[in-house]
């Protein structure tokens, strides 16, 4: 069949299609998002965005128990959210195969931490596959589903950003039939109460680990490529490609299936080579286990480091002592990501900064409000943390109660903000919660959610009513404000933070990238501009300051009017007026 | 084409580097090459520095291009050309759009835009081709074709037949924009 160039994510979606997946679920998160977006194009598969990763995995578990093949995808930190059902599902086991895709992000290109989720597979006693390129990413979906059904457990397919977002050639295959296994009630397997779980620990989980270890020794996924035996490399994932690039003469034990490790195979490989190197990004996942059984290691984490991404030149330098990077970079000002021109979050942060509020933040585009010149955020921890963190601050420092505002996006509020809000009401918090409702999951590339009225596969559906929801959990003061109206926003922040009861301000305006802009673009009347730089304080990429005057770039301006509202001299006017 | 060719496309989020790299990889596949491409999504989409790496050859292992390895750098903006210039190899070629986009650090006055960015690039890379792709795109009536103008300029420097580029363009852009993109490609090729 034809070869096509696919990202790892597109390849995983194709793998789900070819290997009979019937239900696929996810919450968007870089670098995993495109997996579900691509699966959604196959109408034979039910593909859905869930409000968070825990719910997504639970839906996939339901599909598996009922006999269907299921796939659930998330970014690495999403597995933290889904860990609760995951750790019990490895006890109950599957009916239809279930693959959990964990897209890790070494180097933190778009994440708040660098956790190595291979540890989860070992912790939860489940199978683990690590693809190297898009072809393997597609093929390993099939392997994962088969292994899942063979060993009666969920299997993790662990990618990294360079696999998820690199395009490599993939050979397509015809899809297999989508069959449903019979479902029969089996409470001893699927009802995880202590009596049942105890039985499964001994007779299923531990016995299964033995069988998995035997499988790991014999599977074609773990293969040796013999070459010069001076240097022998044990590696997995994208790093295999870096090894091939940097050390074309080395012998390689390439591991595709890495939990449990094929320790016997590693020992016999080690015995044949002079220098054994363990080459893996992030944690010494393989290295620690290999050391623990007494296999002598020549080089690993101590020489290569455990932070960030590896590169071929890093390996060349550490293993061969060849330093190939001679050129130094030129001095250049950094170009950080910014809130877009017309972004509704800009007004919200400007108003919060003006009112000198202590702002607990959350995860999304609006995390960029921490950057200069707005610099409005005090904290960002994880999805949904803004509201509970504000309450904790209020309880620890009651004098700050009137100064605290928690900001959270619409999609993040649905993900895990609602429970925090319930907690604030229940525990008599008085802080103000601002839902920055831009009507979409923006940061990951505009995915629908439960309040947009559309499903992942484009069907019309119900919409969460934020106002009604906040009132239903006990918030009496709920108001909706347009963040494009600075005066109204300012008033709302002043009034709501002053009252000693929980209140919600819904700052509602659609993301600037999903609406058609009809307002006239703005320009600066240089005769009226006094060079006070007030408009520079909103941090709009369309405005620049040269020769003591502001100028608006017409190719960037969308006419949102925020700069006009902060200009005290009426110097910013619509294009056609001048 | 001998050995593996490495091409860096660098610019500012929103400038259309992704479409350009798509056309480039389509051309490479048509030539029968192994191709790998990598880029970073996410935070970088929002007006930050973006980089797409394309490697093509008989057999490509790593998708990464490292300092001193790029055969071509296609820069959609001056400062971005300077930021990545140390990735060029000694015989490499730079195609640079003279357009200047101020980063937020410059806008708020915490850093200065190097006024000699283009000169520094030319000093580091004797084979530098600079063109005002924005102006060319404006004359064609749509500033969004800056990317295809630059691709045309790059195509001229590469050892691949022009017809192959045009058929890749045809396969990648929507039919209603094809004529405009053909003109943009030609304008870049002739620049």
Polypeptide structure, described:
- The complex is a heterodimer of chains A (578) and B (191).
- Chain A has 20 helices and 22 strands.
- Chain A is an alpha/beta fold.
- Chain A has 4 domains: 3-218, Thiamin diphosphate (ThDP)-binding fold, Pyr/PP domains (Rossmann fold, 3-Layer(aba) Sandwich), CATH 3.40.50; 222-320, Rossmann fold, CATH 3.40.50; 344-508, Rossmann fold (3-Layer(aba) Sandwich), CATH 3.40.50.970; 522-574, Alpha-Beta Plaits.
- In chain A, the strands form 6 sheets. Chain A has a 7-stranded mixed sheet, sandwiched between helices.
- In chain A, helix 1 (8-18) crosses helix 6 (134-151).
- The longest helix of chain A is centred in the middle third of the chain and has 25 residues, at 194-218.
- Chain A starts with a strand and ends with a strand.
- Chain B is α/β, with parallel strands linked by helices.
- The two termini of chain B are 24 Å apart.
- In chain B, helix 1 crosses helix 7 (162-172) and helix 6 packs across helix 8 (178-190).
- Chain B is 40% helix and 23% strand.
- Chain B has helices spanning 17-30, 78-84, 104-107, 117-124, 133-140, 146-157, 162-172, 178-190, and strands spanning 5-12, 34-39, 49-57, 70-75, 88-97, 127-131.
- Chain B is built from 8 helices and 6 strands.
- Chain B has a 6-stranded mixed sheet with strand order 2-3-1-4-5-6, sandwiched between helices.
- Chain B has one domain: Pyruvate-ferredoxin Oxidoreductase, domain 3.
- Classes of the chains: A alpha/beta (578), B alpha/beta (191).
- At the A-B interface, strand 8, helix 10 and strand 20 of A face helix 1, strand 2, helix 2, helix 3 and helix 4 of B.
- Strand 8 (166-171) of chain A pairs antiparallel with strand 2 of chain B.
């Amino acid at each position: 069949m034809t070869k096509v160039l696919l990202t790892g994510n597109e390849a995983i979606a194709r793998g789900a299609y070819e290997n009979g997946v019937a239900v696929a679920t996810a919450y968007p998160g870089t670098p995993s998002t495109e997996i579900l977006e691509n699966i959604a194009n196959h109408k034979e598969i039910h593909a859905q965005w869930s409000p968070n990763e825990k719910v997504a995995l639970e839906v996939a578990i339901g599909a598996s128990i009922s006999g269907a093949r299921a796939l659930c995808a998330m970014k690495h930190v999403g597995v933290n959210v889904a860990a609760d059902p995951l750790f019990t599902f490895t006890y109950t086991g599957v009916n239809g195969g279930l693959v959990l895709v964990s897209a890790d992000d070494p180097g933190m290109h778009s994440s708040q931490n660098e956790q190595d989720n291979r540890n989860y597979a070992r912790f939860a006693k489940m199978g683990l596959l690590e693809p190297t390129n898009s072809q393997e990413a597609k093929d390993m979906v099939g392997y994962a589903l088969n292994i899942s059904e063979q060993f009666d457990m969920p299997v993790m397919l662990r990618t990294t950003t360079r696999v998820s977002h690199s395009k490599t050639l993939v050979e397509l295959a015809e899809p297999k039939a989508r069959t449903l296994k019979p479902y029969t009630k089996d409470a001893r397997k699927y009802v995880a109460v202590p009596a049942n779980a105890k039985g499964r620990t001994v007779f299923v989980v531990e016995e299964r680990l033995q069988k998995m270890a035997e499988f790991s020794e014999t599977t074609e996924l773990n293969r040796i490529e013999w070459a010069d035996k001076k240097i022998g490399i044990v590696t997995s994932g994208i790093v295999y490609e870096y090894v091939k690039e940097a050390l074309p003469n080395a012998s390689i034990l390439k591991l595709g299936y890495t939990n449990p490790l094929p320790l016997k195979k590693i020992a016999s490989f080690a015995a044949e080579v002079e220098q054994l190197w363990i080459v893996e990004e992030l944690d010494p996942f393989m290295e620690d286990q290999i050391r623990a059984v007494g296999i002598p290691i020549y080089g690993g984490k101590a020489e290569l480091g455990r932070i960030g991404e590896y590169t071929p030149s890093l390996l060349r330098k550490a293993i061969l002592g060849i330093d190939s990077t001679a050129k130094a970079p030129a001095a250049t000002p950094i170009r950080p990501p910014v809130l877009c021109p017309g972004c509704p979050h800009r007004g919200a942060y400007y108003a919060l900064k003006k009112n000198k509020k202590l702002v607990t933040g959350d995860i999304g585009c609006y995390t960029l409000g921490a950057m200069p010149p707005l610099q409005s955020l005090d904290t960002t921890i994880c999805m949904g943390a803004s509201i509970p963190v504000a309450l904790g601050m209020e309880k620890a420092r009651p004098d700050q109660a009137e100064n605290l505002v928690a900001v959270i996006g619409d999609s993040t509020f649905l993900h895990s903000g609602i429970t925090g809000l319930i907690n604030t009401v229940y525990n008599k918090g008085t802080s103000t919660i601002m839902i920055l409702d831009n009507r979409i999951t923006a940061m990951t590339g505009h995915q629908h959610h439960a309040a947009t009225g559309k499903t992942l596969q484009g069907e019309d559906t119900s919409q969460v009513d934020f106002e009604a929801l906040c009132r239903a959990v006990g918030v009496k003061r709920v108001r909706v404000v347009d963040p494009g109206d600075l005066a109204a926003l300012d008033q709302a922040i002043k009034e709501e933070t002053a009252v000693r009861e929980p209140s919600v301000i819904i700052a509602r305006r659609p993301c600037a990238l999903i609406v058609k802009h009809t307002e006239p673009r703005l320009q600066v009347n240089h005769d009226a501009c006094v060079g006070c730089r007030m408009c520079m304080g909103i941090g709009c990429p369309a405005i620049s300051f040269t020769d003591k005057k502001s100028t608006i770039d017409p190719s960037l301006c969308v006419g949102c009017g925020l700069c006009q509202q902060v200009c005290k001299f009426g110097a910013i006017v619509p294009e056609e007026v001048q | 084409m001998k050995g593996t060719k490495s091409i860096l496309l660098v610019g500012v989020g929103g400038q259309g580097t992704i479409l350009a790299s798509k056309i480039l990889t389509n051309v490479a596949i048509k030539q029968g090459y192994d191709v790998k491409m990598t880029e970073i999504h996410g935070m970088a989409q929002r007006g930050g520095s973006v980089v797409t790496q394309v490697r093509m050859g008989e057999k490509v292992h790593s998708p990464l291009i490292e300092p001193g390895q790029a055969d071509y750098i296609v820069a959609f903006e001056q400062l971005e050309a300077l930021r990545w210039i140390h990735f060029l190899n000694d015989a490499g070629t730079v195609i640079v759009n003279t357009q200047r986009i101020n980063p937020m650090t410059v806008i708020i006055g915490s850093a200065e835009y190097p006024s000699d960015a283009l000169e520094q690039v030319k000093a580091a890379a004797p084979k530098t081709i600079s063109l005002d792709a924005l102006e060319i795109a404006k004359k064609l009536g749509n500033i969004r074709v800056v990317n295809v103008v630059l691709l045309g300029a790059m195509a001229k420097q590469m050892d691949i037949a022009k017809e192959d580029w045009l058929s890749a363009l045809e396969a990648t852009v929507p039919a209603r924009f094809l004529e405009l993109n053909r003109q943009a490609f030609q304008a870049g090729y002739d620049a």
